[in-house]
Design a protein that fits this description.
With 140 residues, the protein is an alpha+beta fold. The chain has one domain. 52% of the residues lie in helices and 14% in strands. The protein has a four-stranded mixed sheet with strand order 1-2-3-4. The longest helix is centred in the C-terminal third of the chain and has 38 residues.
Length: 140
């Protein structure tokens, strides 16, 4: 999917949610709570869970995603074992992980780790960009 189409798809899906992304319902609410706890959040509204089910993003292997301070972790909910060793989404979610409380807690820890890792990468990238800009303007 070309970049502009992908951005339009993300925006369209983001704006048409079946729930409040900061307070999802059902299994999504349970997973959202577990991830917020794993992140140690006091304000769970800082974490959002978006559904992409039935959208163009779903067709490209993303059923949902978490957003946390500008970073995304994508999820693909599937029972297909061929996807378990890497696929398009950041995290592959089995139906058992949604239904079983212990499995869901482990899944939440994995998602929280991925969110924090991506957040640290984004912060490092921003610091490098600022250094580059300062270096470019210092000699101007």
């Amino acid at each position: 999917m070309p970049y502009s189409q992908a951005m339009m798809a993300w925006s369209l899906v983001r704006n048409h949610q079946p729930w409040n992304p900061a307070e999802p319902e059902g299994w999504a609410g349970d997973l959202h709570s577990e991830v917020a706890i794993a992140l140690g959040l006091e304000n769970w509204a800082e974490l959002c869970l978006f559904s992409a089910a039935g959208s163009a993003l779903d067709w490209h292997g993303m059923d949902a995603w978490f957003e946390f301070y500008g970073v995304r972790v994508t999820l693909d909910v599937t029972a297909n074992p061929s996807k378990f060793n890497g696929y398009k989404a950041d995290v592959i979610v089995t139906p058992v992980a949604i239904e079983n409380a212990d499995e869901r807690r482990d899944l939440a820890a994995t998602i929280a780790e991925e969110l924090m890792s991506k957040r640290q990468e984004a912060a490092a990238h921003q610091r490098q960009q600022r250094r580059t800009m300062r270096a470019m303007t210092a000699c101007a």
